[in-house]
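for the recovery benchmark. tokens below, seq after
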């Protein structure tokens, strides 16, 4: 919970195998106390591909389904997106992403896998992989989160390796 700085690497928007890189993301996370602390809210702002970017995400754990659920609303995707972990909480899910990989994939199901690396309590890396129909799995998005120091406006994110 708290304030984070993030660097985002996005291969979907990139060209020639090189990602679009955004180094100005600010992220605020908090438990939503009015829900009894059952849900976490995440707000992200910055620029992506030279355009303003905003995302609101709500994550919780479903006791009924015994899995994590994460719903996001952002300024890039034309619809809300809901990610549901498998019952064994393996971190994978299958979702339909309308046209995010191009018009030939509009309305098709694209298997997705998220890998979260908690390197320390101050640095996390989220990698998002897609497996488009008939293609091999590929890394499409990486976000490196670094906790902002108390009273600091910025924090160093370092540079992750690319795939």
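predicted aa per position
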């Amino acid at each position: 919970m708290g304030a984070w700085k993030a660097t985002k690497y996005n291969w979907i928007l990139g060209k020639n195998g090189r990602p679009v890189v955004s180094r100005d993301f600010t992220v605020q996370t908090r438990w939503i106390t009015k829900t009894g602390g059952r849900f976490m809210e995440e707000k992200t702002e910055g620029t992506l591909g030279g355009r303003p970017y905003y995302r609101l995400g709500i994550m919780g754990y479903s006791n009924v389904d015994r899995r994590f659920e994460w719903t996001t609303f952002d300024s890039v995707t034309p619809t809300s997106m809901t990610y549901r972990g498998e019952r064994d909480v393996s971190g994978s899910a299958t979702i339909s992403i309308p046209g995010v990989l191009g018009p030939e994939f509009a309305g098709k199901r694209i298997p997705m896998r998220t890998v979260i690396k908690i390197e320390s309590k101050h640095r996390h890396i989220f990698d998002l992989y897609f497996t488009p129909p008939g293609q091999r799995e590929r890394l499409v998005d990486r976000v490196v989160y670094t906790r902002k120091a108390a009273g600091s406006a910025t924090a160093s994110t370092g540079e992750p390796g690319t795939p």
